[in-house]
Design brief:
alpha/beta; Rossmann fold; seven-stranded parallel β-sheet; 198 residues; 9 strands; two-stranded antiparallel sheet
Length: 198
């Protein structure tokens, strides 16, 4: 297992997960301190064609607003964004969001790979990618793209995840991924973001 690096302060954090990831997300976001200002963008696999209450659920955990971004909206500091159901969420070169109704990727819409790969193109080494519990391989290729761009790749430890398929797929692809429990991921993100409450 790679030791987790402590690179320059990231400009964005992208997080992906599927089955079982909500518990890990709740740990990551619990009562975030005010000084945690790095924007966080989350893709969680959601039931198709149903309204999502994920933003409201996560907002209650984080103690700050969580919302679905609009097309062409700039990525703003201190914000937590979640991908809307039935859209791929991308980050464009102008550091603005883009919504796409292209075909599912890895049977998923939104797809974690789509977000991770687009964010890697924009933020490069100043990006942190986090892949949590899930039952598919979505996100592994995107996390590899983040690693290849010089960013930091973090995977929830398979033994800590409710569903280990997604973490295992990422570990197999990403040579330098940090493998941590959800609690350790939270502590690491707080350190990277410059908080003293790690």
């Amino acid at each position: 297992m790679e030791p987790c690096p402590t690179p320059v302060r990231p400009e964005a954090i992208v997080v992906g997960g599927s089955a079982g990831a909500l518990n890990a997300l709740s740990t990551l976001l619990a009562d975030l301190p005010d000084e945690f200002t790095v924007p966080m963008v989350i893709v969680l696999h959601l039931p198709r064609r149903k309204p999502s209450v994920l933003a409201e659920v996560l907002s209650a955990k984080a103690g700050r607003p969580v919302r679905e971004p609009q097309d062409k909206e700039p990525v703003s500091s201190s914000m937590i964004y979640v991908a809307p159901a039935d859209y791929h969420l991308l980050i464009d070169q102008g550091r603005t969001f883009a919504l796409s109704v292209d075909e599912p990727v890895n049977f998923s819409l939104p797809s974690i790979d789509v977000l991770f790969e687009s964010a890697a193109d924009v933020f490069g080494a100043r990006l942190v990618g986090v892949l949590l519990s899930g039952a598919s391989a979505d996100g592994a290729r995107g996390l590899k793209a983040i690693e290849d761009a010089g960013g930091t790749a973090i995977v929830q430890a398979p033994e800590d995840a409710a569903m280990s398929a997604m973490p295992n797929a990422a570990i197999a692809l990403c040579e330098h991924a940090c493998v941590l429990s959800a609690k350790e991921i939270r502590e690491h993100l707080l350190r990277l973001a410059g908080s003293d409450r790690a």
